[in-house]
Write a structure and sequence with these properties.
The chain has 397 residues and is mostly helical. The protein contains 17 helices and no strands. InterPro entries: MFS, MFS_dom, MFS_trans_sf.
Length: 397
């Protein structure tokens, strides 16, 4: 197959790796009932994903340079296939936790090298194009898995929906397509332990992603239980799809905005959309839940995800792998710790209080990160203006 198809083959593989991540989301309530556990235990099992991601991002930062980019993608696909098989053979919270751990390892491998690898295959000097491909393929995958499972569950409750078998077939096909992808970067003897880095100006973008994925993580992990209380559990996968994959619709607009403005717009939308979906969930109104999820997706996987990743990729210079790892480290911390805390509050004080506490924290966080970005922008403009003044004076001299 011609090399010009290589980026599309890699994007397909990235989509299948992330498709497996939320494949089981509509079954979380069934798994919890089988295990006799509540919201906190479900949130802990859900967050096993981050325990898989963290070792890759923290301790294996040198892996893409030592063994090349390409081997990491088949490894991630293999881990996604194993995780799906595990939940097929032994459904329950324990199997879910183990599967989420494997999925975290796989996604960590793909995240650590995916943007840089796409950039090399695209052969573009413009790094934002690789970020666009990466965010589009992963956004579609993260949401599509849950939606497919919900579609199959409309035919009746089951612990082995057809979406699981579909993922196995498509992931195997993706494995064949990426097996002989070119690895265009020479292997380098670099230390395996290469901690994530945060180039100057990049930390605020990572914190914005922490807030965005905290919101989407809450929808994926805890909203199925809330909808179940209102007899709407069959729609939980569609709410997951709305809060993730609908962000694709907003990525073309995000591309036309400067990164900082894109992220700030997302941070303004995020608390408003969360209030809408939380209000709908508390009252059992499916229409408001889906509308709020759709609006949140524009922020989480549209403006913040694309704008933030493009900004970090630009600020990283030649050290893209470590900088991308730092960005995703904060994102995945947001995807887990706030979800566990909110699950505990839900078990102790009730669903409504949990939603309100999370909403208040989200609002404060969005305001703080927005203020930080605004200060950074003003400082940069002031510095550029001062520089221009100096040059003019020099010319006159």
């Amino acid at each position: 197959m011609p090399i010009r198809h290589a980026p599309a083959r890699l994007a397909f593989a990235l989509c299948l790796i992330t498709l497996a991540v939320n494949l089981q989301a509509p079954l979380y309530i069934a798994y919890a009932d089988l295990s006799g556990r509540g919201a906190a235990a479900t949130a802990v099992a859900f967050s096993g994903y981050v325990l898989g991601v963290l070792p890759v991002l923290l301790a294996l930062g040198g892996l893409p340079e030592r063994i090349g980019r390409r081997p990491l993608i088949p490894a991630a696909l293999g881990l996604s296939i194993t995780a799906t098989l595990l939940t097929l053979l032994a459904p329950g919270l324990e199997a879910l936790a183990a599967a989420r751990l494997l999925l975290g390892l796989g996604t960590g491998l793909a995240s650590a090298s995916g943007v840089a690898y796409l950039g090399e295959l695209l052969g573009d000097q413009d790094s934002s194009r690789a970020a666009n491909w990466f965010t589009a393929s992963t956004s579609l995958g993260f949401g599509l898995g849950a939606a497919l499972t919900s579609l199959f569950l409309l035919n009746g409750p089951t612990l082995t929906p057809g979406s699981f078998y579909l993922q196995l077939v498509l992931a195997t096909l993706a494995l064949l397509l990426v097996w002989n992808l070119p690895d265009l970067r020479s292997k380098v003897r670099t230390p395996m332990l290469r901690l994530p880095s945060y180039p100057a100006g990049s930390l605020a973008y990572g914190l914005a992603m922490l807030l965005a994925w905290a919101c989407s993580g809450l929808v994926i992990a805890l909203l199925p239980g809330i909808l179940h209380q209102h007899g709407l559990s069959a729609w939980s996968g569609f709410s997951t799809f709305c809060v993730i994959s609908c962000g694709l619709l907003f990525q073309p607009l995000a591309r036309r905005l400067p990164s900082a403005k894109s992220v700030m717009l997302g941070l303004l939308i995020l608390p408003c959309s969360y209030a809408l979906l939380a209000w709908g969930a508390d009252r059992g109104s499916l229409a408001w839940v889906l509308l709020g999820s759709f609006a949140a997706s524009s922020a989480c996987y549209g403006f913040i995800y694309l704008g933030g990743l493009a900004a970090v990729d630009r600020l990283a210079g030649s050290d893209k792998v470590r900088s991308t790892a730092g960005f995703f480290l904060l994102a995945y911390l947001g995807f887990s710790l706030p979800v566990i805390f909110t699950g505990l509050v839900s078990d102790w004080l009730g669903t409504r209080m949990a939603l309100e506490v999370f909403g208040a924290a989200l609002l404060l966080g969005c305001l703080a990160v927005c203020a930080s970005l605004l200060i950074s922008l003003k400082a940069r403009k002031h510095h550029q203006g001062h520089g221009c003044t100096t040059i003019v004076r020099g010319d006159h001299a």
